[in-house]
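Onboarding guide, step 5: your first structure request.
Type a short instruction followed by the sequence, for example:

Predict the 3D structure of this protein.
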Amino acid sequence: MKNLFTLFLTFLTFTSYSQNSWINIQLMTDNYPEETSWQITPPYGSPIIIGDDSITQPNFLYDTTIAIQGDIIASIFDSYGDGLGASQWNGTDGWFLIKNDCQDTIMYVAGDFGLSFIDTLTIAPCAPPTGGCTDTMATNYDPAAAFEDGSCIYPPCSGLDTLWGEWYCNGPSVTLHWHWEPGDNPNCQVISYSRTKNLNTLWDNGNVYQYPANWGNTGVMSSNKQPNTTYYFQAMLADSTLTDTVTITTGECNVGCTDPAALNYNPWANIDDGSCQLPPANCVTGESNIVVTVIPDTYPGETSWEIADTTGTVLTTSPAYTQPGVPVVTETCVPNGTVIEFSLFDSFGDGMCGTCYGGVDGTVLVQTLCGDTILAILPGDANFGSDTITSPYVVQPCTPNVILGCTTPGFTEYNPQANTDDGTCNTPVVLGCTDITSPDYDSTANTMQIVPQCQYTLTITDEAEDGWYGAWVGILQDTTILGPFMMGPNDGYSETFTISLSALSPVELMFFAPGQAATTANQCGFFLTGPEGDTTLSGGTNPWTDPMLQFPYKYSAMPYCGDYCTEGIIGCMDSTALNYNPLANMPDNCTPIILGCTNTLAFNYDPTANVDDSSCVSIIIGCMDSTAFNFNPTANTNDQSSCIDVILGCMDDTMFNYNPAANTDDGTCIPVVFGCTDALAFNYDPTANTNNNSCLPVVLGCTDATAFNFNPLANTDDSTCIAYIYGCTDVTMWNYNSQANTDNGSCEPFIYGCMDSTAFNYDPLANTDNGTCQVVIYGCTNPIALNYDPVANTDDLSCILPVYGCTDSTMFNYNPLANTDNGTCEMFVYGCTDGSASNFNPLANTNDNSCYYNPGCTDANFLQFYTQGYVADFDDGSCIDSVVYGCTDPTMFNYDPLANIDNGNCIMIINGCTDSTMWNYDPLANTDNGTCIAFVYGCTDNTALNFNPLANTLDNSCCYIGGCTDSTALNYDPNACIDDNSCITIVTGCTDVGAYNYNPAANVSDSTACLYDAGCYGGPGIPYWLNDGCYAWVIDVDSYCCTDDWDASCQSMYDYCQQGWPTGLDDISSLGIVVYPNPTKNIITIETRHEVDIEVYDIMGKLVLSQNNKRVDLSKYPTGIYNLVLIHNNKRYNAKVIKQ
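The system replies with structure tokens like these:
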């Protein structure tokens, strides 16, 4: 399908008016279509058709057909003046054609026609072609139509052929690009679209954009969008249908150096800005490096430079400087022998004097790798105007710097800086715990084994609490890239991030403040802290004294994740001890528990006890004399003064012998007994102790009522009583009693028989023996007995009845009671008859005491005797290992690894210092624990001026009077024993402020030394060269040189133009301090009579040297700019010096 004009100021169709001819107009644009316009005009009147703003696509064919009548003027214009010519600019020329079917080509122009080409054309009558829809995509396509008349009707759009989106970086900003292919159906043309960050606000007012027809309908772009943001896009087509929604999520656009080999490689950069600074050039043979280090001032864009040879040929030029205060290193190779000049320019004309307008001065240092300084511009001397050019310098090769050392990793001597191995790699690395205070200490290790990985905390801060405005930090470790990390306007003062870092390689943190973020960069800060809370890196801790430095500066440090050493906790590890420490992992002295009463107020307080066992008894005071009346058996503390003597007696006042003074009843109380107490009375009562008037007179007689002659009236027996004598009073009876006075009925007649009780026939009833007694014969009267005696009349119990059994005394079952053998005898079978014994013999009938129950080792001289767990009663041959007595506890001091039986003599390990020459020697210690502290003599009184906190032994050196102890000092104090650094050196000099050599440090006037002009004592101009600027600082010249105008040695001696200008800042020179030479290759000399402390810092602010020697040796330090600080009377004076 032909391409048609779409925008015209005037478009005349064949149907708009009646004409008799027509023309076809074709324009092929060149590479610059926006320069081209054209028009068709009648000889009079306004243009019929104009083509201008619609011409936008290069090398594109525009084609249209219009009705016409009569002559016309065809005009084509080019605003640049090269017509349709583009080949001269390596492009493609264009052309312009007018034709019809009747006249064929009416006008044609191509290439360069200048600003315009105008031609009057005669158009002959020509039957107009048939118009219609010429688009085959249309539903009313007319193949017979000669031209398009705009009548095409298209089917509804079924959707775009393609629709997709992308984002890319356009410098530091983000550009969105949505692409589509509408196809040939005009209804698929995009007429409007909506773009938003919120899906719910698509097609809301303010988010809808018309799509201009001249945009080509292939896509739309949107620039300066936000990073890390999601955008939504939807288009409306010509038939009012909507496309699908396309989503694009943007990333970061970080501008910087993307070359990993560059010194300022930015791992986060995805847009290279051409700022890459490559490492020192590997110059080819015959060339040498020139290194230019520039630290821009507050206005970096004003600075530039070039290196040229003496013919004016420029060899190299400076990069663009954009960041103040950030070092930029540029290196180039120059052929050896070339004479070069370095030119430094400032477009404003104030050099690099940032301080001239309230900013910071810049620095320029031009050097060779040999260390030669070609140019040095230092702060304080940076206003060189618009330009400065160095003296010609001849480029010469230099010898590479050889660094000897061990170059093989894995050895303790390894030096990563060494480039030449010197054979010192001797000790292989042995990893382990090297902390002798840890229980994990490994005496074989020589290198601490560290934890390789851990979590670090990155804290970023915002002093203003309003966000970082696009500034951010990133962290790089090896190939691991972390970040960017930044703060938003609502993040407050700080925000933290947890990151994982390796302890095996350095970590680098870089700060970026692109664009306007640089204006608020000093409010940003950070802390990188380890797992133990220690700060590994920090920056921006103070907006004025420690602002964060921007990339390419790198904050670098080695992370530390700790080691595998367990922290040593010394303590008692005996759980039964008083001071047992369950956390201890290294032994210390234990205190055994001593139970007892620990209450000092208790009766049984035990001063040796350290654990109270609840046995305390309260003190009970009382009489403890058991013989005392008030003895207190519960008392444990005697109160002798309270004891009362015992007074025995009857304490019962009802008793006969009651004693009112008695306090102790002795049981002697006698009850009151009433009765007759008259011993002559009949009824005298010897037990009575109290007479009751009951006494009776005595009546003699027999008072025994049982007596034969009892007198009932008698009350006093007169011993005349005759007892009753009972018996038989019958003289005929066998038992007649001539003494009896009373017959008792006991008379018995005579009974005759054998009355011999020993006789066999004794008759116990007989009372009169008749001579018939028979002798007793004893014997066995049992006829079945073995010893039956038929003669015996009296059984004597001697009968032996038969007892059957074994009567053989040699037999096992011999029965000593048997008297009749029955043939049952059994032989003896000896053995163990106990069924529970180990050697039980079921056949044995006689136990021979051979039973044993626990066979084993029975010899106490062997180990098995103790380890078998029981007492053996039979040796089974298991005794093998001889007993070795000793201490078997491996935790004890005298542990014997050969001992197998503990003899109870183990001695506990007592750690301590065993060196008797040490301050903390412990005579009780038997194991040295490395804690010995040497005697440190000094003053141990913390109130003394010379108190030594390290001293542990007083040496009577304490001093309490401070002052100047230098007898040569101005303020010498003879009473002072400690010098308090207050001594004022006697400085003799000129104290006249009007003199040229006035010395403000002088405290003793020497008026004869005052000079009132530079030079000799005789005045200036003698010799003449003292008036030269190279000698302007010289005051005292020796007498010889003062009288000899032409001696070259004098001029050389005092000419510091040759030796290097003295560096004297205002504050230094006011004290008479001179620093020279500057620049230097090795030694800086400081001329002053004052005592000064000297510190040297490198360009990054790191302290590299501290001393009080006035000769500063910089020979071991790399070339560069250093800050020299002189400290006098607690004031600091600064000077920049250059080390070549």
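Each response can be followed by summary notes, for example: Residues 677 and 686 are 7 Å apart (CA to CA).
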